[in-house]
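re: that chain from earlier
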Amino acid sequence: MLIDSQINAYILTGGSSRRFGSDKASCMINGSTFLDMVFKILQSNFTHIFSVGKKAYSEKIEFISDFSGYQAAIIGIITVLRHTSSPWNFIISVDTPYITSDVIRALEKEAVDIDANIIIPSVDGQIFPLSGFYHQNCLTYFEKAYSVENYKVMDVITLLKPEIVDLSRYKTELTNVNTMNSIMKRSKIK
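^ sequence. v structure.
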């Protein structure tokens, strides 16, 4: 579905990290930050990669500042869709440091609804909206929600009838790290 089209990748770093207790983008695992881990995987899949958030964390990744100081994922998505020159864009949250190229390829390959404008994974029935492909034509829907102070990403996604791809076999790779305890659990799994 997305083959042969230029796809930009964007790493959202603007979260407040309240549950985590410190800034996730600069958190280190085995000598690499979350941001570096995600960036490294994206480099093998995308030509243009950007970080989006409240501040830059790396000189090697082009930074785009959120258009609003408000803390919500919808701010990052709108910022991405306003910035991009590509029809399709891969958006991922920095708190998904275990992502792999296999997950990205599977998400792209297994999408079958050619009319969908959002392609996102699910694991055991749980949807992961911040690890997926978004078409630029979604912008007006996200902006409309923002204009009426509806900051819930899933409200907009549900309205757009996304393609949801079951990637339960990639449960570990799609782990959303929200606490230091989840890093410890992951370390014990290895």
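The chain is about 30% helix and 20% strand.
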